[in-house]
Amino acid sequence: MNQIDKVLSFIVEIEKLKDVQRKTRPVGLKRYENSAEHSWHVCLSALMLKDYANDDINIDRVIKMLLIHDLGEIDAGDTIIYASETQELKDEEASGINRILSLLPEGKGEEYMRLWLEFEAGETPDAIYAKAIDRVPPLLHNLHDNGHSWKKNDVPKEKVLTLNSRIAKGSDELWSNLKEKLEKAGDKGFFA
Amino acid sequence: MNQIDKVLSFIVEIEKLKDVQRKTRPVGLKRYENSAEHSWHVCLSALMLKDYANDDINIDRVIKMLLIHDLGEIDAGDTIIYASETQELKDEEASGINRILSLLPEGKGEEYMRLWLEFEAGETPDAIYAKAIDRVPPLLHNLHDNGHSWKKNDVPKEKVLTLNSRIAKGSDELWSNLKEKLEKAGDKGFFA
After folding, report:
1. What CATH number does residue A20 fall under?
2. How far apart are CA B90 and CA B12, in angstroms?
3. Which parts pass through the membrane (chains A, B) (predicted)?
4. B14: nearest CA in chain A?
5. Fewest CB atoms less than 10 Å from the CB: which of A81, B41, B57, B175?
6. A70 interfaces chain B, CB cutoff of 8 Å
7. What is the pLDDT of residues B61-81, one digit of tens each?
């Protein structure tokens, strides 16, 4: 297969992310979100919120991370962040993205595999910020949907606050804003 | 409204792109694509095909262009490239994206409005490449779907070849590859 055909086969393979269903519904829609449209949404969210990052970040790297961050779900499926993430699932996602990046021409996938591993480890400023932003749209979905996915998946307020407090690692200002909204959602009975 | 709330209202507003239906179906799916998942797909396609661009391009600018390129469709809807694009429709898209970018904090939207206008004009190397890549996934969809959208929208082979030959302005190598695939699709009766 020639080089361009290899890239085209990658482009066709990643179409499958459009069929991976997530646990929240886009604001105003009665269907669940898929991981491809989510990936677009977090990229644009990261771009527009970049001035609120705690650390100096490279937004171009962050966007690339977020473009690929869910590719492992094509093989492994989406998991709600409130479920405990097993080592087995992490391995399945890693081998999934590795399989997909292997479709690219020789030597092209490694750079993106490293970027994905950096995102997963969540230790560099870029990865910390990217992971923080990844949590924002699902919170907004629930806040605009009477806590639909929190109630459906039996997630209490304390769990939502504890798990999402990691947003503060990427942006204190953003977390402070969202925490206030979550407190108000508690008063309205949005949690399980 | 404080600054972060303005960005969050933008993030919620652009959710509507997930409900804008396009004219082709993702490979393997029996539903039509929406413009949000398409936007993700073209960003990643542009990234992985960047080595085949005719000119020196700034891939980070190209990705930002493609992240926002369809936002005007929230107000104007999607139009198949084979339909003639009226000035009225172009104006509707421009005022649509302007409205959406105006939700951002003071002074933040202008940069992206300029980027969108550059994309629309299609004259700089970045815009020429971005516009070329924007045409690739719909071709792949039709090539993997027996020409479903070409037949349904009554598009003959010559029209597909003529309109998509503009891909060559962004990448001769890519167009040469796709043109060969389109010729073969003609032999299989994929066109109207």
Report:
1. 1.10.3210.10
2. 24
3. none
4. A41
5. A81
6. no
7. 999 999 999 999 999 999 888
